[in-house]
Amino acid sequence: MQSSTKMRKPDGQTMFLGTAILASLVLVAYLLEFHQDGNGQQRRNDRPTKRLDEIPFDGQAAFQWIEKLCAIGPRPSGSSGMQRQQQLLMEHFKQLGGEVALQPFTARHPLTGETVEMANLIVRWHADRSKRILLCAHYDTRPFPDQDPNPRQGVFVGANDGASGVAVLAELGRQIPSLTGEVGVDFCLFDGEELVFEEKGDYFLGSTHFARAYAAEKREYAYRCAVLLDMVGDAHLELYQDISSLRWRDTKPFVQQIWRTAGQLGVGEFIPRRMRVEIRDDHLALHQIGQIPALDIIDFDYVRPGENRSFWHTSEDTPDKCSAESLAKVGWVLQEWLKQQR
Length: 342
Description:
The protein is of the alpha/beta class. The chain is built from 9 helices and 14 strands. A hairpin with a 5-residue loop joins strand 3 and strand 4.
């Protein structure tokens, strides 16, 4: 996932404007959400919210998926960790009744030039239905924690940035077979979201491959909407509306539907206001190449209240920074929104 401080050039190269600018933007966006109380203390704006025991979605089970995936260790594209993760997830979704397949593709390693074997993991539910919705996340991890002071000495397990979206889908898969209506659902876990070493490499490889295959395919189905989950496990969750998703006329109504559903459920972490930082993520390829209305549910302000540092792309992106409650709220909102689709 890229923030507005990493911009894609027309030739596909990536231009970095500096981590200092990134940190400043994240901090400013975070601080603007505070206001002074009567005692002059800074605190978050009060919003209605639900407790974990009030939510009919098993956030604890989803959180256990974060723990399972992080226990594997780093899971970058082409690694043994990625292969172990693929096997674990394929077995899980098959047991739930999903039609599971890998969508293989290759890329060149940005440092060595060698071929890297990759695969998106696709799960189809109610495959006979022509009207479909795509739910997706990336499941690769950054090769190393590039935002650490000594990146090569750290280990990046991607609890929030990678595993959290996968965890929500892993638990949501238990609910999908029983959903009624005319709409089928597909899951896609993208590989190669950030195969980047030393500011070399490329982003969004898996979603780009998926979108191109979808656009070229002769098919009897179409995706009504795609919903991307990225960094949704933050224990201090705040989900603003992605700028690109609101800008696209075909996507904006779905953004409004999901945030309205959250409001009706009393899930105040879905904040119906525009992000201050534009995010470049897997949803761009889905919309621009696949012509699919695509939105991004993401909390990029991955900081602990009272601290100025972000856990993003650091060795501190570990399960203890995430929460079962955050996963439950995101899963519940998606579950209820899916029930409304006809």
